[in-house]
Amino acid sequence: MTRRLQIGFSICLYCFCAWQGFAQSQYESSTDFAKYAIKLRENGLLVMQGKQKVQPAPKTVSGASLQPASPPLGNRVSGVDGELERYPWRLSIMTTIFWIGEHPTTNNPVPNDASSWDPNWSIDYGGYDSPDLNLRKKFVPVSFFPRQNPFYIALPYNDVQNGHTKPEAKDVIPWFKDAFIRDGASVLKGHWIAIRHNNRVCYAQWEDCGPFCTDHWQYVFANERPRPNLNQGAGLDVSPAVRDYLGLSNLDSCDWKFVDFREVPPGPWAMYGDNNSFVILRRQSNQRFSPKTLLSASLRN
């Protein structure tokens, strides 16, 4: 019995000291924490917010996976390396810059105070996400702390119309079955994508729909090219943070593809936002590894 008490006391003391060191350092940078969060996630110590779960890789194309009635996703667009991928690269897509709070123009007739999924987008973000480089520092505005991820994008499809989930959504969205909660709740909002320009790759979350249309699933999820429009057939809108990271001009060519959160590496896209998967992990890990929680777990064992 004495031996067991000594072991229990040692565990408690170790947990307390480890927490003290953690509380004092709080990691040298947000990137260091992101690496820590990924390590915890991969070891199964963290759980995504609400009902979201990290899902195992889907069945291969030859294994009758859940895909739209059109050819399987892995066969629709080939990646640059020629391998079959669940989410292959979409190559040479004209890309434009948009931002939260943007006023309507001839080539962008819809104001961006609201998004397709958030009527209070500008308010929830915390303000006007100015694209002016003189008003930005380290990928964020200098005038306020963004409450949502400044790395955001728009693609021309919305899975919700008039408050209801579109009929084709269940057939064309690869992760629909895993993410669906209820009718009218988007399964697209917040999903991560990778954007590639020259030799750099940036990661961002899908937070709005466009440019120009919200019904082109044949491009977003299948093998069509973007439809002709006033911006030279642009098929992707990216935020000023994405622009700055990739070094894009106002109208440029990029490759993009969907990624699952477990594939997203650490980077500046991991630092900000109540809607950011990394920030959610940080808060959950802080709660899970609080001194009180660690002490209770050690006593139970």
What does this 3D model show about the protein?
The chain folds into two domains: 2-45 and 281-300; 72-270, Beta Barrel (Barwin-like endoglucanases), CATH 2.40.40. Helix content is 29%, strand content 16%. It has helices spanning 2-25, 30-42, 73-76, 121-125, 169-172, 176-179, 217-220, 240-246, 277-288, 291-300; strands spanning 90-97, 136-137, 140-141, 152-155, 160-161, 164-165, 192-197, 200-209, 236-238, 251-258. Strand 5 and strand 6 form a beta hairpin. The protein starts with a helix and ends with a helix.
Give the topology.
Layout: H1 2-25, H2 30-42, H3 73-76, E1 90-97, H4 121-125, E2 136-137, E3 140-141, E4 152-155, E5 160-161, E6 164-165, H5 169-172, H6 176-179, E7 192-197, E8 200-209, H7 217-220, E9 236-238, H8 240-246, E10 251-258, H9 277-288, H10 291-300
Parallel strand pairs: 1-9, 4-8
Antiparallel strand pairs: 1-10, 2-3, 4-9, 5-6, 7-8, 7-10
Helix pairs in contact: 1-10, 2-9
